[in-house]
Amino acid sequence: MTKTDRINKALEASFKGSEISVVDDSESHRGHAGFAEGGESHFQIKIVWKGFETLSLIARHRAVHEALGKDLLNEIHALALELTSE
Length: 86
What we know:
The protein has 86 residues and is an alpha+beta fold. The chain has helices at residues 3-14, 57-73, and strands at 19-24, 42-48, 78-84. The chain has a three-stranded mixed sheet with strand order 1-2-3. Helix 1 crosses helix 2. It is elongated, with a radius of gyration of 13 Å. It starts with a helix and ends with a strand.
């Protein structure tokens, strides 16, 4: 299972009923710190989920980090997050 698949699976389990987009943006970081040949080092994640309505931006980010877990986060160099309730 790819890292992208693992990310999707973890997010879908935690944010039921949401719209989730996970894009491997690693190639655009070629030559930069953290780039890994073969990709899956830099990701753009967009989640639209009603549950974010009452959460601050930092609480939304923490929820995503918790959903992914420490082990998976340690395998990712960079995450760009767009987290909205609508």
